[in-house]
Design a protein that fits this description.
10 helices; DNA-binding; Arc Repressor Mutant, subunit A; 2 domains; 249 residues; homodimer; 3% strand; three-stranded antiparallel β-sheet
Chain lengths: 249, 249
DNA sequence: CCTTGTCGGATCGTTCAACAACTCTCTATC
DNA sequence: GATAGAGAGTTGTTGAACGATCCGACAAGG
């Protein structure tokens, strides 16, 4: 997993004789290094939100979290900013940060962008080295395994990873980041709806079918199938969402 | 002062009879509200960066900006976070924030995402109300006007607005936001290259042509044209970039 | 009874000052 | 000439403080 963050090295001055060797170490150290307190706090909260431990609408109290996490308010607020820009928290001026409550419009919007990105990525695949499908195979297998066990939360996780890896085939850092934000928000939506089996069961098999098309190099058919897939998934999610809204108005 | 002008009725449930009316007001108040100090500072810096007043690679000193802007370091840092997540600044731990220096890989990456979004938006347009093309007409006209005057910076601005409005036809908040980030970063790239005439002149006419196709409802042909358009633009930008790199190594 | 104005507690927005941690540069040393 | 280390300068983080704003409750008025 190379992270080609631009413009890091200074090939200009200095005695960079054994550069190649050091470069690798420096890279590794840096990625280890890259843990400001705020980012570690953000990582922790991100996990909580994505896993659904914090219910939608819940307010994250600064005072409370400062006590629990043993960081200063300023640092905590920086973590909040990070997550806010990932769409995992919403910030209301003078009121604090909350776990977002997505509405139907948000779901439609999320799927709109999702279709745009995922379908386009698949459509543009050609001359793909089959080795790069390896992570997708693993994810599909993980999903099937989870389904056999009846662990639909794990199936959902595998599904998310499948789609993240699918998008990664484009080899674009910015597409990956956009998709990551998107899928994280979507995960929020799944949690607010519940009913993981209903939402995930149909797509264990469809992921397999999609992957088969990719293996066969049938990118156009794969894109078409993915389009239908995502429409169906959206419809299912909206229906489940409405069911839930009816129960708890 | 509340005189409910007839128009809006919500023939549904509950006591929310003039819901639509209130909704609009709430929206307006909220957007008015949205003025924390950090965001105002961010807006100021954003303008500076986008307009190219700060050269790529320049470090924004906290101490210095605190003095100039008369805000606290914490507030300034929050503004930095905002811009960092828009891609307009990069943050290196313990070293500060810098105006990004995009390299060729970044340009390729930006255009990759750009093609994905813009072409897909156009491809999915159908049954479009011609009224919604109004902003695009204005932008094309502004571009043509700037070109006549030889003001290629203004032409570039008009071009950016054209593409932002183009993407807005999808009617998706998240697509708009993604495109905004994208175009802001691209703008950075244009500045680091210079040569605005070379980069913008050809697309004044092509924007007009593209718009004509949209007016005619020929979305497929428009998408195809846009695809070529963006490929050409990318190639031109890369070539200009290499020319410049050769001059200043 | 419902609306409107007022008050106090709680929380957020922002500032400030201080110290710790880190990077960069320059110098002394081998 | 390369290396190690000291010092200066900058960022990272903390904790406390004060004003601004939100929220719920309660009283005054129609």
């Amino acid at each position: 997993m190379a992270s080609p963050s631009a413009a890091d090295d200074d090939p200009g001055r200095g005695p960079d004789t054994h550069a190649g060797w050091l470069r690798a170490v420096a890279e590794e150290v840096r990625s280890f290094d890259r843990s400001s307190t705020a980012e570690r706090v953000a990582e922790l909260l991100r996990h909580r939100v994505i896993e659904g431990d914090l219910p939608p609408g819940h307010r994250l109290s600064e005072e409370q979290l400062v006590d629990v996490l043993h960081v200063s308010r300023n640092t905590l607020r920086e973590a909040f900013r990070l997550l806010t820009h990932e769409g995992l928290l919403v910030h209301r001026l003078h009121r604090g940060v909350f776990v977002p409550e997505l509405d139907e419009d948000d779901l439609v919007d999320l799927y709109r962008l999702r279709r745009t990105i995922e379908c386009d990525v698949v459509r543009r695949l050609h001359g793909l080295d089959p080795v790069r499908l390896r992570p997708l195979h693993d994810d599909v297998a993980a999903g099937e395994d989870a389904a056999r066990r009846g662990d639909w939360v794990a199936a959902g996780t595998a599904n998310m990873r499948f789609h993240q890896h699918l998008v990664a085939l484009a080899g674009s850092r910015r597409i990956d980041e956009t998709a990551a934000r998107l899928l994280a928000e979507l995960r929020l939506a799944f949690h607010s709806v519940g009913a993981p089996q209903r939402l995930h069961e149909p797509y264990v098999g469809r992921n397999r079918a999609l992957l088969d098309l990719l293996v066969a190099g049938e990118t156009d058919r794969a894109a078409k199938e993915l389009e239908d897939y995502l429409h169906d998934s959206e419809a299912e999610l909206l229906a489940a969402f409405r069911d839930r809204s009816r129960r708890t108005p």
